[in-house]
Specification:
The structure is a single chain. The chain has a two-stranded antiparallel ribbon. The protein has a two-stranded antiparallel ribbon with strand order 2-3. It starts with 19 loop residues before the first helix and ends with a helix. About 65% of the residues lie in helices and about 0% in strands. It is mostly helical. The chain has 26 helices and 4 strands.
Length: about 550
């Protein structure tokens, strides 16, 4: 779901290359070794060809419903103008007059024991106020009581939301954040267990089981009328959605090898910004949380039919000893790529070493301690800032649909630029720069907070922050995997997913900061961005092989593992 949570890094393949284990006796590859690693499967069907292009593009489509579901709350939980419900015979009163009569300044309380039947709908407003004041003086001391029902604005370009459907206002307003937190709690949980399930049952099997469940839960939400059941379904939806992301990305990566692993993993992110723009358009056209839910649930039905097109990972099958299935996939891919296979080629399952590493192995050496502590902080920071911007678009002011579409639009060049630059230069300084620049942009947005005449400037700074943080979000998983030794890479990425999950759980509550003080939200994102950029400076570079001290430290770390 990214967009990094629950995802493996683009080169963090869970199985060791069959040929690499024999060809490279060194315990830890250098920074670029993984990208140069190829295997017999790639040699036979091609490291990257038309077949791999088609399959990886098809798998990237699974990112579309994932992005829809994680960003839907921006529109489904949007705030609406509300007021205490007017009596039936006073429905024609203007809202402002009604608020004055009922003394409902906070829209949550109104006058107690007021006999509204004494007032007539066709009375002039001034006379109404006089009658209300007289009735109030005669009947009560002006005490206020909580409203029991509310009315909502109908021409606000927001439509029916969770707020108006379940009266999530006043003392129930926090339940909107709870609903989103349940989804992200499912994402955080799924990010921890999806890697294990994908390794055990297969990438394709887990991908399509999760995709089917995602479609079922997504469409079930359309029919759901109970808020409690809605919360449960949101949590389950988050759980399976991250499994779709994880299994699909692993499968795409294992269709290629060598340097194409990193590239395939990164262009898997391109559907994300396009999906952000699409859902903003759908939300504008539907303006109803149920109709929007139906629109974002239907695409999953068509994706499930890709079961008949997308094969299982040949590398996973080889590890499991299913040689006949591997050969069928290789022959189909080689034929599609126009490659001629040897008449007598043989495939042998690789010898798998036992792996019992746990979380404590991340702190067995000074090198591992340093990068583990740094990456735990960085993944937490990245997800807090990235989703803090995306999921709070409705609280930044302006048109939420246009803001969200622009946020998706700026991410396209951000991903493209990051992909190009990290193949040419090192990642450390670029990664640090993206976080620092995001912090500066958020700081400028915080300065313009609360000034309506400078709203356009605030949105501009937000889009600049979204551009830079998206570029960093593209670099982060690749950089993480390159710094961890192969023997402990999955454990390291899994620990980072836990930190990212904690950030996701906190994200829905960031919008409450603006109710305390208008500058708090952007100030917090500023502080965390700068903190993350500073932490990156403690990490080693990975772009070149000549850094002998870094390679030596990685070898020492692996020996202790």
């Amino acid at each position: 779901m990214h967009d990094t949570v629950g995802k493996p890094s683009p080169i963090a393949t869970p199985t060791q290359s069959p040929m690499a284990s024999m060809a490279d006796p060194s315990p830890v590859p250098g920074p670029a070794d993984d990208e140069d690693e190829t295997d017999v499967i790639g040699d036979l069907m091609g490291h990257y060809g038309k077949w791999q292009l088609v399959m990886t593009v098809l798998l990237s489509l699974f990112q579309v419903p994932n992005t829809f579901h994680i960003s839907s709350s921006v529109y489904q939980a949007a705030n609406k103008e509300f007021w205490c419900q007017r009596p039936a015979h006073l429905q024609q009163l203007s809202v402002d007059v009604w608020r004055n009569l009922s003394e409902s300044q906070d829209n949550c309380h109104q006058l107690a024991r007021m006999d509204w039947s004494q007032l007539r709908n066709d009375t002039l407003p001034a006379q109404l106020e006089q009658q209300a004041m007289a009735a109030e003086a005669a009947d009560d001391d002006g005490k206020l009581v909580a409203c029991k029902s509310w009315e909502y604005a109908t021409n606000d370009n927001v439509g029916n939301t969770w707020t108006s459907e379940w009266d999530l206002v006043c003392d129930k307003e926090h339940l909107k954040n709870v609903a989103e937190m349940f989804f992200l709690l499912g994402v955080a949980t799924g990010g921890i267990i999806s890697g294990y399930l994908s390794d055990k049952f297969g990438r394709k099997t887990m991908l399509f089981i999760s995709a089917v469940l995602q479609t079922i839960f997504g469409l079930w939400l359309y029919f759901c009328s109970s808020f409690e059941l809605y919360l449960t379904l949101r949590a389950l939806l988050g759980l399976v959605s991250v499994s779709v992301t994880y299994s699909g990305l692993i499968l795409a990566i294992e269709y290629v090898d060598g340097k194409w692993r990193t590239i395939a993993g990164m262009y898997n992110l391109f559907p994300l910004p396009i999906s952000y723009m699409i859902i903003s358009g759908l939300a504008y056209l539907t303006q109803d949380y149920q109709r929007l839910q139906l629109c974002i649930g239907i695409p999953g039905i068509f994706l499930c039919f890709l079961w008949f097109v997308v094969p299982e990972s040949p590398r996973w099958l080889l590890v499991k000893g299913r040689i006949d299935e591997v050969k069928r996939i290789i022959e189909a891919a080689a034929s599609f790529n126009g490659r001629q296979l040897p008449a007598d080629y043989q495939l042998t399952p690789p010898t798998q070493e036992s792996s019992s590493q746990d979380f404590t192995y991340l702190f067995r050496s000074s090198y591992l301690r340093r990068i583990s502590i740094c990456f735990l902080c960085i993944w937490f920071t990245m997800n807090l800032v990235y989703y803090g911007i995306i999921l709070n678009m409705s609280s930044f002011g302006g048109n939420v649909y246009l803001n969200s579409a622009l946020a998706g639009l700026v991410e396209i060049p951000a991903i493209a630029v990051a992909m190009y630059i990290i193949t040419k230069v090192g990642k450390k300084w670029l990664f640090s720069a993206t976080l620092f620049c995001a912090g500066v942009a958020c700081c400028c947005a915080a300065i313009t907070e609360g000034r309506e005449d400078m709203l356009w400037l605030k949105i501009t700074f937000l889009m600049m922050g979204k551009f830079t943080i998206s570029a960093g979000n593209t670099i982060m998983p690749v950089y993480t995997a390159e710094l961890y030794p192969t023997a402990i890479r999955n454990v390291g990425v899994g620990a980072c997913n836990v930190a990212a999950g904690l950030a996701l759980i906190l994200t829905p509550y960031l919008s409450l900061l603006n109710k305390i003080e208008g500058h708090l939200l952007m100030s917090l994102l500023t502080a965390w961005s700068i903190f993350g950029g500073f932490v990156v400076l403690f990490l080693p570079e990975t772009a070149v092989r000549k850094n002998a001290s870094t390679v030596a430290s990685r070898r020492n770390a692996a020996k202790q593992v």
